[in-house]
Design brief:
Layout lengths: L5 H15 L16 H20 L7 H25 L7 H21 L7
């Protein structure tokens, strides 16, 4: 299972690093002055995570319920990262709006997947 989902795991590890790294690391980045860039980043990270998870598991998806259950993985992961930011970091804090943008990225990825490749459900 790990080998089959290696890219999902790598994306999740990058998200973990970015979520738990001190804020001083990002102060040096020039595009940090763009309004709401952090929300765009949250949307993009979780859009990518959901997209990679679906892509790596596309051959085993048999029902919409299975697809929706898979979407819970990045959703709960995002919530966990926000909680860990509040607990483990000094210069960062968890945010409800970050969770909202994480969820939006997951939802848009899910909708695009269903638009590009609708599931064929056989009874």
């Amino acid at each position: 299972m790990v080998k089959k989902n290696i890219f999902s795991i790598l994306v999740a590890l990058v998200i973990m690093y970015l979520s738990l790294t001190g804020s001083e690391t990002f102060e040096k980045v020039s595009f940090n002055d763009i309004p709401f860039i952090d929300k765009v980043a949250h949307f993009g990270m979780y859009f990518l995570l959901m997209s990679v998870i679906v892509f790596e598991n596309r051959k085993t998806l048999k029902s919409y319920a299975h697809l929706y259950l898979i979407a819970l993985i990045p959703l709960f992961y995002g919530i966990l990262m926000e909680l860990l930011q509040s607990i483990l970091t000094v210069s960062r804090s968890g945010s409800f709006f970050d969770i909202v943008f994480n969820s939006a990225g997951i939802l848009v990825s899910l909708l695009i997947w269903l638009w590009i490749k609708p599931l064929t459900i056989t009874k």
